[in-house]
Amino acid sequence: MSSSHKNSGYYLLPLGYDFFHCVVFIKDCLPNLVRKELIGGIQFILIRKSLNKRCYRFNISLKNELDRETNMENKPRHVNRIAIKATPEQVWQAITDPNKTSKFWYNCSIRSNWEIGSSFELWNPEEKKLADGIILEMAPPHKLVMSWQFPAFPDTASESPSRITWEIESHSELNGVTLVSVVHDEIEKATNTAKILEMGLPIVLSGLKTLLETGSTLTSE
């Protein structure tokens, strides 16, 4: 959903968007159902923001959720996705095992005891700590949320922590394929960190895919 769309007076509701009042909303607010529209390859329903009273009776929570999602979309963030021929468990092990990360994360080993609230650190082969943060949320093997800082670089050392979220799910149609999404957000006060990760995370994900599918590294040692 994007308020910058030409129909800014409407909510853009993706078909299949799983709000619990969605069916009631569409049925009860049919006069406000404008049309279907294909935006960026996704089919949307355009719904007026000025809901009538009858819709309010059923859909206050839906309206609030739509507003919340719109506000989240307006905040800057970087999203990277890749499909890997591996299980979610294999992906999880690769991103949390220092012996694995050293083969795809710019030769860096990740170190943590992997408990919520604990710290993690990313060390290069010269034993220099490049990045660190806190484990904010963890649901193996499907989700990992961590704060992120680069204390090793002058342009990033004083920046506020940003956030990285790993989402790991089996593909719904392709057996043995896992979809990996990495979202970097809360970057308003970490612009230099964001620039580094915007360039670096696609390489990390490509290296992860190469390692799990071939056993090799993306680049020569």
Distance between the termini: 43 Å
Q: Report the uncertain regions.
A: 1-6, 16-33, 51-60
- Biggest sheet statistics: 7 strands, antiparallel
Shape: globular
Strand order of the largest sheet: 4-10-9-8-7-6-5
Let me know the average pLDDT.
Answer: 81
Tell me the number of helical segments per DSSP (H or I, 4 or more residues long). Answer: 5
| Secondary structure tally: strands | 10
List the secondary-structure elements in sequence, H or E: EHEEHEHHEEEEEEH
Q: In percent, how helical is the residue content?
A: 25-40%
Computed over alpha carbons, the radius of gyration is 21 Å
- The fraction of residues in strands falls at 25-35%
Instruction: Return the structural class.
Output: alpha+beta
Question: How is this fold's topology laid out?
Answer:
Elements: E1 10-14, H1 22-28, E2 33-39, E3 42-48, H2 53-74, E4 78-84, H3 88-96, H4 98-101, E5 109-112, E6 119-123, E7 129-139, E8 143-148, E9 162-170, E10 178-185, H5 191-214
Tags for this model:
221 residues; alpha+beta; seven-stranded antiparallel sheet; three-stranded antiparallel sheet; 5 helices; 10 strands; disordered N terminus
Would you mind describing this structure in some detail?
With 221 residues, the protein is α+β, with helices and mostly antiparallel strands. It contains five helices and ten strands, in the order βαββαβααββββββα. It has helices at residues 22-28, 53-74, 88-96, 98-101, 191-214; strands spanning 10-14, 33-39, 42-48, 78-84, 109-112, 119-123, 129-139, 143-148, 162-170, 178-185. The strands form two sheets. Strands 4-10-9-8-7-6-5 form a seven-stranded antiparallel sheet. A three-stranded antiparallel sheet has the order 1-3-2, with no helix packed on it. The longest helix has 24 residues, at 191-214. It is globular, with a radius of gyration of 21 Å.
